[in-house]
Amino acid sequence: MIRGLYNAAAGMLTQENRHDTAVQNLANVNTPGYKQVNSVARSFPEVLISMMGGSSDVPTPTIGKLNTGVFAEEALSLYQQGVIKASSKPTDFALVSDMEMTDPATGQNIKFDGSGKFVSANGEVIYKPEAFFTVQDQNGQIRYTKDGSFKVSTDGRLLTSTGYQVLDSNNRPIVLTGSVDSFKVDGQGYVLDPKTGARGQQIGVSVVGQPYQMVRDGEGVFRIDDPQGAGVRLLAGNDRVEVRQNYIETSNVNASEVVVDMNTALRAYEANQKVIQFYDKSLDKAVNEVGRV
To answer: Does 29 have pLDDT greater than 80?
Structure first.
């Protein structure tokens, strides 16, 4: 009976985490570049139950397996591209990315599923590479973001909406030399001279080969603890990535799907709550009524 209480409590905690994740997604449905998060639940290891107290001459009979509950293991981000919307601000940017990869087994282009994953014939899991703006936090640490709603500081530095420094392809701060109205960038991210049209600094765009190794760091940015293991590299000329000025990538949150998931988590939470109340009443009877007999 006590084991049932623990299992139901674990279920409540898992559904609470699932509900909180859905609320977070809904709160960021209008946040540029936000990527939807899905809560992943896992079951605790099963245990094999055997009968106790038997004779040493008789083999102990096996009763069966027992599941020991569930827990919220992790939260996975979906890196599907959001809708690209036109903007009137010259400091708004969007990355239009459609990276291609070849299946090493067949030599054909990979068709990734909705989550950006592909499983080859030999069981190898391949993830779709994703492109991110390269930025720097206040401590000088490299971070990555899809939020291209930039702004310009008083000293001409290009910043993210939350104040992170936007870097160029050499990890140097991008500084505007002219007015914001004359700020022009081509499709490869090069800042164009307003008078001659000559290319200057290139907006830093990083391609991440293993995007599921990225960790949310708050304020719309991600960090990567092992850049080499995650396959981080600079944007190459043959990559199918375009930098679009005067555009912004919206959140990829599916609001209707998230609302359904939130309500499902609430109902499951209530069901586990009822189970705990049932066990509580049963224990009450066992202690206060059966104990008097």
So the answer is: yes
